[in-house]
Amino acid sequence: MSNTPSREELVKQIETVGLVAIIRANASSGLLETCKALADGGVTVAEITMTTPGALDAIATAHTQLGDQMLVGVGSVLNREIAKQAIEAGAQFVVSPIFKPEIIEEAHKHGKPCFCGAFTPTEVLQAFEAGSDVVKVFPANHNGPKFFKDILAPMPHLKLTPTGGVDLTTIPDWFAAGARCVGVGSALVKKDLIEKQDWAGLTDLAKQFVDAVAKVRS
């Protein structure tokens, strides 16, 4: 019997954790240490974006060395081929800033969840109906949490996550508005901490975010 989790189990794991760290770095050095520092702080789900130099190698290394501590996915996926390469490298979920059916198809073919991006109510519904396991509203900071409430009022079956505008002060508002989980980039994965190799500082910040999510959900 395979121990590989199903797509549904992976989605449930991400929703249960409620927090996805978005790693968008300027260089390939320090990516594994970044993942370790986040995991040490309790952040157990992270996406490494394809805009990061050496992203595929970093995904492979992180999955191999931290697979039992952290669920590592890929972000900023723009087409089927990138999704395929990232999953073959070890990505456990696929995130895109756009809605493109071929990305969902490729992820699902390999049994991995896909979070496609959308911005309007029509795009959100189209992405969800095309199979996006959770729809990433991006950029979410322009409309804020109220946008989630407005969309979910007539379409409560949708599963939404925000990227953009999520920090320690806004986390309660996003969950109150109906977010299944939140994606956090620069507010958590601070480039200055990475550049200074301040892994203890990054771990401490990760703990603050984990505590904030736990407090909202308690």
From TrEMBL:
The keyword NADP does not apply. One of its GO terms (molecular function) is 2-dehydro-3-deoxy-phosphogluconate aldolase activity. Keywords: Carbohydrate metabolism, Lyase. InterPro entries: Aldlse_KDPG_KHG, Aldolase_TIM. Its EC number is 4.1.2.14, 4.1.3.42. It comes from the Bacteria. Pathway: Carbohydrate acid metabolism. The keyword tRNA-binding does not apply. Homotrimer. NCBIfam families: eda. PANTHER family: 2-DEHYDRO-3-DEOXY-6-PHOSPHOGALACTONATE ALDOLASE-RELATED, 2-KETO-3-DEOXY-6-PHOSPHOGLUCONATE ALDOLASE. Belongs to the KHG/KDPG aldolase family. This is 2-dehydro-3-deoxyphosphogluconate aldolase/(4S)-4-hydroxy-2-oxoglutarate aldolase.
